[in-house]
Structures are given as structure tokens and as C-alpha cells.
Input
Amino acid sequence: MKNLSKYIVGILILPLLSSCLKDENILDPSGSSNIIEFYNVTAPTSASNAPFIMYVPKTLELVPETEFEIAVSYSGAEEAAPQDIVVNIEPAADAITRFNSSQNSAYIQMPNNGYSLPTTLTIKKGEKRAYATIKVYPEELDQTKSNALALKISSASMGKISGNFGTVIYSLPIKSIWEGTYTYSVTNNFGTIDANIGSFTEQGVKLSTVGPNRLYMQYLSRVYSGYAEYQFNGDNTALTSITAFSGSVLSSTINEVISIDSDNLSFEVRWTWLGRGVVEKFVRTGD
Output
């Protein structure tokens, strides 16, 4: 990312954009004692206004079986759980519906034959967390959909279930051919000229799968906090849309797809977000 002093200038002159800050580990702000909640096993990917926290614990390969880890935690006046705490979890498909409505997304709850999970975790006396493994069966999933698994804590033998982190959503995208590390170049040379962007090249920029042929890049134009998401068509021969997010979804338009090479995994696009016209080029360099 570019020099931090430029971001500070951006904060002063561009109030609609968020400053460039990396995500911190999320804690329940309630301050209440004896809280039971899901624990962050990976960094959250959901927006701050989302009704539930979303994680992407794993990108799925098309294999018969894989797995990922979840955790529940105790926080309270005591340093650790004062007794064994039995925590019951269950699927929460209604959370997907609420999330989609709030975020204009299209996730689906994984079918019952697409996963298996324990229904009970026990936080042992003297410990703060309990971990469990969820098995996923990617070949049973619809590859054209954005598969996710929403879970909620239905009960706990001690403590209060967190209002903020008692329900979570795990997004489990099937890996896109575009996922990998890129040399990224950007030039802001039309529309609104933004001195914070200018023109630069950055090595090692990651594109991560977030949905069917949909890729996520952290930091908008690699300058502002938030992200950009790039949507390719089914056979990866066209770039069909780009979403810009910094604090909220910003207006964006693809002006021209200059080139797209799905064999050598490179593409170049001229597009506009919040009036800023940029040319971005991605050249794949590795996984």
C-alpha cells in the first residue's frame, strides 16, 4: 500500500471514504460479564453495517471432503470459565436471509448433505475457548451458488449468549481459477483525479474467491480501506461487474474491459468508482 501520509490527506479531503486501517480482532462491546459467543478463527469479511459477522474460513476445492475449524469463547469477570460450560449450536438459515436483505447479496445456506457438525461444544473449567471441526462435502454443493453456513448458539449452561456474536456466517466459496497473487498496477487518469491514487504498481496483491467466479481484493484501489470485488462470467471470458466498497457500497461503472486472458490469468480494466476513473491491470504471479 502507498505511504500512510497520503491516506491522512485522503481522510481530510475525502470524508465519504474510510481511512486505510486494517481490521482488528472484534470483541463484544457490551461489557457484560459471563458472555458466550463465537470466536474469530479468521478475520471477518463482512461490512460494519451487516447484521451478522461473516468469515471466509476456507476456499473449497472440488474434493469429496474437507474441513474447517470453529470456536466458541467465554468472557467474564473471571480470567477463564469457572466451570464446564456446555454450548449448543445449530444451523440458522434465517440469518442468511437477513444478511442478503441487508447487504444485497445472494448467499444460500448449504444443504444438509453438504456438511456435518457437532451440536455441542464444551468450554472446560479453567479455559476460555472450545474448538470443533466442521466437515464439508464440496461435491454435494451447487457450484453456481454462493454457499455459506450460518450457525447460532442456541443455549449455554452458563452465561449470556452474545447479542452481537451469538450468530455467525461462514462463507465457503468454491475456488475460482483467478484466485492467486498478482502484480497490480493502477492509474487514476480520468474522471475525478485523486492525488492519493495517482499511478503505482504493487507486487503480491491477492485476489481471493468470495463467490462463483467472484474475486475480492482488500483495499479499494489499494489506497482506501474497504475492498473491490470483480465478477467474471461462467466461463471466465468476461468481466461483468465490479463492486467498490469503502464504508458503504459506492457507485461504480465498468467503462472498458481492455483485455482479459483466462489462460495466462491477466486482465486490464478501465472503470469508475465514486467519480474516480482508474485503469487497473492484474498479472498473475503465483498462488
Notes: The helical segments are 4-13, 93-103. Residues 93-103 form the longest helix (11 residues). The radius of gyration is 21 Å.
